[in-house]
Specification:
- By secondary structure, the protein is an alpha+beta fold.
- Helices cover about 40% and strands about 20% of the residues.
- It is built from 6 helices and 6 strands.
- Strands 3-2-1-4 form a 4-stranded mixed sheet. Strands 5-6 form a two-stranded antiparallel ribbon.
- The protein starts with 5 loop residues before the first helix and ends with a strand.
- The C terminus is likely disordered.
Length: about 170
C-alpha cells in the first residue's frame, strides 16, 4: 500500500475529486468511485487496494445517505420478471464475488436460444437463508425450476473448498 491510512489518501485528493467520489459512493457506484480515486492525479499514485479501502471507508461514513437498494421480496421480483419479454422457464442462482465479498445472483432463464439469464436480483453480505427462500418462493409462484447452488452458502464456506482457482479441494 502506498498510503498507510485511508484518511491520508482522502486528504491528498483534490476537493473536486472528493465531491465526485462521494457522489458516486452515495449512488452505490463503487467501481466508478475507485476509478475516480485512482485517476485523480495524486502522487504517489495510490495502488488499487488503497482506492478500494478508501471507497469502503467513504461508504461507511456516508451510510445514512446511500441510495436505497431496490426491494427484493417475492412480489417485487415477480414484478420485474413479468416485465421480461417472455415468461421465464427457470430461475437460476449463481455465486459471484468481488472485492467486498460474495454475491448471490438470481436470474430468469427465458425460452429460446441459450443466453445468460436475465438479472432479477443480487444479494451481498446477508444471511443467505433469506435470498434462497425468496428465490424458491418466486420459482414456485412461476411454476418453474430453481437451478443453482443449494443451502451450502458461498464456495469458500462449503466443506472441502480449497480456494484454489475455484475448484473444490
Amino acid at each position: 500500500m502506498v498510503y498507510e491510512k485511508a484518511h491520508e489518501l482522502w486528504l491528498a485528493l483534490p476537493w473536486e475529486t472528493r465531491e465526485r467520489v462521494d457522489a458516486l459512493v452515495i449512488r452505490r457506484r463503487r467501481i466508478m468511485a475507485v476509478r475516480e480515486i485512482r485517476e485523480a492525479g495524486v502522487l504517489p499514485r495510490p495502488d488499487l487496494n488503497d482506492c478500494v479501502v478508501l471507497g469502503a471507508v467513504r461508504e461507511e461514513i456516508l451510510a445514512d445517505r446511500l441510495v436505497p437498494l431496490p426491494r427484493q421480496d417475492v412480489d417485487a421480483l415477480a414484478g420485474r420478471a413479468s416485465e421480461l419479454p417472455r415468461p421465464p422457464v427457470a430461475l437460476e442462482l449463481e455465486w459471484d464475488g468481488d472485492t467486498w465479498g460474495w454475491i448471490l445472483l438470481l436470474g430468469a432463464v427465458l425460452p429460446g436460444p441459450a443466453e445468460r439469464p436475465h438479472p432479477l436480483a443480487q444479494w451481498q453480505q446477508v444471511d443467505w437463508a433469506e435470498p434462497l427462500a425468496t428465490a424458491r418462493a418466486l420459482a414456485d409462484r412461476f411454476g418453474v425450476p430453481l437451478r443453482g447452488p443449494g443451502d451450502d452458502g458461498p464456495p469458500d464456506m462449503r466443506a472441502g473448498w480449497s480456494g484454489d482457482a475455484g475448484r473444490a479441494g
